[in-house]
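Colleagues,

Please find the record for the three-part complex below.
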Amino acid sequence: MAIVRRSLLLIALALYTSFAAGPFVWAAMMSLRTTTEIHRNHFAFPNPAHWDKFSDAWFKSNYAVYFANSVQVVVVAVLILTVVGAMAAHCLARYKFRFNRVIYFILFSTIIFPPQITIISLFQILVQYGLYNSKLGLTLVYVAIQLPLTIYILESFFARIPADLFDAARMDGYSDWEIFWRVALPIALPAVATTVILNFILLWNEFLYAVVLITEEANRTLPLGIQRFLGDTQEDVGMIATGLMIAIIPVIVVYAFFSERLIQGMTAGAVK
Amino acid sequence: MAVVTIDKLTKVYDRGHAPAADNVSLDIADGEFMVLLGPSGCGKTTTLRMVAGLESITSGTVSIDGRVVNQVPAKDRDIAMVFQSYALYPHMSVKDNLAFGLKRRSVERAEIERRVANVAGILGLAEFLSRKPHALSGGQRQRVALGRAIVRDPKVFLFDEPLSNLDAALRVSTRGEISALHRRLGATMIYVTHDQVEAMTMGTRICIMNGGRVAQVGPPLDVYRRPANTFVASFLGNPPMTLLAAVATDRSGGRCLKVGDSEIELPPGRCPPLRPGSQVTFGIRPEHVAQSAAANGAMIPVEAEIVRVEPLGAETIVIARLPGVEKLVFARLPGDAAFAMGERRQLFLDCGMAHVFDGDGGALGAGDT
Amino acid sequence: MPASPPAAGRDDGLPKPWGTIIAFLLPALTLYVGFTAYPAIRTLWNSFHRVLPRREEFIGLANYVELARDDIFWRAVRNTIVWACTSPLIEVTVALLLALALYAKVPGARFFRVAWFTPVLMSYVVVGILWLWIYNNDWGPVNVAMRALGLGAWTRPWLGDPATALPSLIFVTSWMWVGFNMVVLLAALHSLPKEVIEAAELDNCGWGGKLVFVILPLVRATLLNLIVLSFIGKMKIFDLVFITTKGNPLWATETVSTYVYKRAFEWTTFDLGYASTVATVWFVIVLATVLTLTWAFRQREKLEY
C-alpha cells in the first residue's frame, strides 16, 4: 500500500516535471531542426542535428550583435549596481544617523512601484540628455531599477556583521572607506555573489525598459532582438527556436553553477 | 611606553539618563597593568572605549603621555585593543590578521614578515599562520587576537574581557600568559573584566567601578584588605565578605557593636570610637571566622546556628546564622572541619580583621592596621 | 564567531562622519533621484498636460476626466485585476501541494526542486514565444493532444478566442511562477519545528487534518507573503502580453501596462500626457491595494494570536 502510494506520488511528480521543463526541451529540439523538418513533425528528435543553425543565427541574423549588447549592458549595470548598492547598504547598516531608516524605507518601497510610473518620463529625460537609444542610458536605467532590491538584500547581510570587526579595523588604522573595501565587502561576499547572479538574470531577461528606450538595431539587446526576429519571420519556427536557445543558454549555464545561490537570491524577499 | 591619564571622564548616552561613566579619574603609570573591575553595566567598558577612541567623550579628558587625545581618532592614538569577541577578520588568514594593522602603518614588508613570525613564535601560532579563523579553536583565536595587538607594538594595550569566551581551564592558562606577556613587554595595559580572580592575579593595580563611578583604586591586596566601602567589600572575595547591620553601644569606648543579639568588641585601631547608638555595618571575611579560638587572642566567640555546610575538600564553607540576625555569615574553614546542619555551636570572629562601615557604606578606620 | 552587537545596534556617539555617510550614499541616491524619483514626479506633472513632441500645454484635469470615460482603460484594469487575483491563488495552491510532496522525503527532491524552478529564470519574451507555439491552433501540443484524446471539437486558437485568451495567459504565468512559490514554501516547511508535526501524528491527526490544522497555520505568514508578491508581479505584467497577443483579441488581454505603452508610444496621438495620467492613476491603485493587502493580512494576524 505504502509502495503504491509512493509510486503514484513519484509518477505525479515526474508528470509535473515534464510539464515544467517540457517546453524547454521541445524548444531545444526545434532549435536543432529546420523549419521544414519541424513542419513535417513538430515533436520529433533532431535527426540529424543542425548545429549550423546556431552559427547562422549568430552571424546572419545579427544575434552576435544582440548578444554582445546584452553582455555589455548587463555586465556594466551589474558592476555599477554591486559597488553602488554595496556602498549604500553598508552605510545604512553600519552608521546610525537621522533619516537612516527613512532613506532605507524610501528605497525599499520602490520595489512595489509599477514601472509605468517612471518609464514615460525616463523616455523624455533620456531623449533630453541624448541618452535615448544608447546602451549607456539603458545601463543607467537598469542600475536604477535593480538598486532597491540590491540594497535590501545586502543591507540585511551587512547588518549582521559584528560591530567589533569595524572597531578592530579602526584601531588597526583603517579609514571608513578602506574598512568598507577591505573588511565589510570581503565578508559580505556570499551576499554580494547572490545579488550579482540575481541582477544578472533579471537584467538579462529585461524587456519593457529596453523596448521603450532602444529602437536602433545596433543597440538592441537579446530580448529585443528575439522580438524583432519574431516579427520579421513569424513562420520560421526553427530559426526562432535557435534564437531562443541563444538567449536561454547563458541563464542555464549560470543556473547550473549557482542554482542554490540563485534560488536563494530570487526568494530572498519572499521569506520572512 | 606611556602614561595614561583619565581626568573626570564622563559619558552620557541619552540625555536624562544616568551617565554610563561618571566623573572617572584614573592615573595609569608607565608599564602598569591596570584592571578595571566591576559588574556589567558599571561603565568599565565605556571607559575603555573612550580611551580607545571608539566612543565619544561627553566631558573630561583622556591624555596619553601628557597629550590630550580627546580629538585624536582611534587610529592615531597608537593603541591596540583585544576584543571580547576577538573580532578576527573572518576572510583573512591568521597571518593576514596579524599583518593587517602593520600594512596600514607603512611598515616595510620584510619588517612585517619578521614581526609576524616573531609574535607567532611567542604565542605558538607558527603552524596556524595560513589558517582562517573559523578553522581555529577558541584558545587559538584568542591568541591571534592577542598577537594582533602585540605585533603592532603600541604604546598602550587595551583588553575588553578577553577571556570571557574561553572555558575555565584555558582561562587559567591564558591568564598566566597575559601576565607573562606584560612582564616581558613592560607595556602599559588596561584590562577590563568582571572576573575578580583575573583582577586579583593580573593587575598591578585594580580600579573597581560601580554605577559609572570609581569605587576604589589600589593594588589588589590593598583593595582586598582595606575596601573603601561596602560595595568593594562585598564585590571582592568569594564567598563575599559578610556584612551585617550593627549598632554602636556605649561600652568599651565606642568600639563595641551590637550585631543582632551578640555583642562584638573590636580591638583598638580597627575603627575610631563610635557615637553610641549610631548605625553602622560590620563586615567580616569568611576566612576570618574560625571554629576555635586561636592563640592571638582577638577572637570573639559568638553563638551560631549552622544553616548549610559545603565541604569542598581543601576547605569547608560553613554558612551560619547569628542569633537575631537575618543575614547569613560565611565561614571558610579547614577541609576537616566537622559540622552538622542545624547544629548550634560557637564560632570565633577574628575581630582584628573585621571591617566597620558608616551609614553611607564608607569604611571607618581603614588603613590603621 | 562569538556574538557581539551587530553593526546596526550600536551608537558610539562619535561625531557623525557625515562626509563618509554622504560619500557612501551619494551614488545610490543620485541614481535614485535621477532615474526613479524625478521621473515619477515628472509623470505626475505630465498627467496634467498635453505632452507633444515639441509642445506642452497645461490642460488641468482634462486627462483624468477623459480617463474616467475611457472604456479600454477600464477593460485593462479589469483584466489586470482578474489576473492579479486569480494567478496568485493558483500558484500558491499548486505550489503548496508540490512542496508538501517534496517535504514527504521523496527521492530526488533536490532534482525536482531545481527543475521546477527553471521556468521563472526565463524571460517573458522566451516564455511568450514558447506558449505562442504551445497554444498554436494547428500544431500546438495542446490542440494536438486534445485531438488525440478525441476532444477535437473543443480545440480552438486559444489566444485568438476572446473567451479563452486571458485565462490562457493567466495559466502561463502560473506555470512560470509555481516553482518559485514552491521553493519558498518548501523552505518555510523545513524551518518548521519537527516536533509540532510529529506531535500531530501522535494525536492521530490524519494527513488532511495535519495539513489544515497544523501546517497551514504555521506557514500562513509565508503564504500571505507569496500572495502579495505574486499580486504585485501580476499588476505589472507587460512583456508576456506584448509578445503574445498585444492585448488582442478585442482588448481581451489588454493590461494597464500594455495600454500605457500603446498610448505613449504606438498611438498616433503622440501625447505622453494621457499615458502619464493612466500611469499615475494605476500607480495610486497599485500602491493602495498593496498597502491594503499588507494591512489586512497584518490585522488578521493580530486578531488570531
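The interface with chain B takes residues 162, 164-165, 167-175, 178, 183, 186-187, 189 of chain A (CB under 8 Å).

Comments are welcome before we finalize the supplementary table.
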